TrEMBL record:
Coiled coil: none annotated. It comes from Luteimonas vadosa. The active site is at 23 (proton acceptor), 101 (proton donor). This is 3-dehydroquinate dehydratase. Pathway: Metabolic intermediate biosynthesis; chorismate biosynthesis; chorismate from D-erythrose 4-phosphate and phosphoenolpyruvate: step 3/7. PROSITE patterns: DEHYDROQUINASE_II (PS01029). Substrate binds at residues 75, 81, 88, 102-103, 112.
């Protein structure tokens, strides 16, 4: 059994009501419950954390190493294009992660095409709405299961 952590960045607490034409109608609680059930069914434990505060996300990343988190799913949301601090935290703990986005940043405003995380990530899943998280989780568990006996 491996421990996974999903990090949700700013404004994702508004999912379900925030620009549903861009982000879909699923709430963050529904996404987290689905991911947790999928991970548990595969014999893994999954926790989720959302914050609108950059420092809280950085501190959660730091704590992940001490907790034995084996893999992260990270949706930096608006911090994707701005947060050197969160990027540095992920680099410092050296826990593999997949960058996740509900929308396709490359199909939106030009500034959204720049990510401070993609070059550190194992992979990037974007543009599939809530399914982006499920696809990222499947990829993370496949990598973990290959490593585990």
């Amino acid at each position: 059994m491996a421990k996974l952590l999903v990090l949700h960045g700013p404004n994702l607490n508004l999912l379900g009501s925030r620009e549903p034409d861009v982000y879909g109608r699923a709430t963050l609680a529904e996404i987290d419950a689905d991911l947790s059930a999928r991970a548990e069914a595969a014999g893994h434990a999954l926790a989720s954390f959302q914050s609108n505060a950059e420092h809280a996300l950085v501190e959660r990343v730091h704590a992940s190493r001490e907790e034995g988190i084996a893999f992260l799913l990270v949706n930096p949301a608006g911090f994707t294009h701005t947060s050197v601090a969160l990027r540095d935290a992920l680099a410092a703990v050296a826990i593999p992660f997949i960058e996740v986005h509900l929308s396709n940043p490359h199909a939106r405003e030009p500034f959204r095409a720049t990510s401070y995380f993609s070059d550190l990530a194992v992979g990037v899943v974007s543009g599939f709405g809530p399914l982006s998280y499920g696809l990222a989780l499947a990829a993370a568990m496949q990598r973990l299961d290959r490593r585990d006996p």
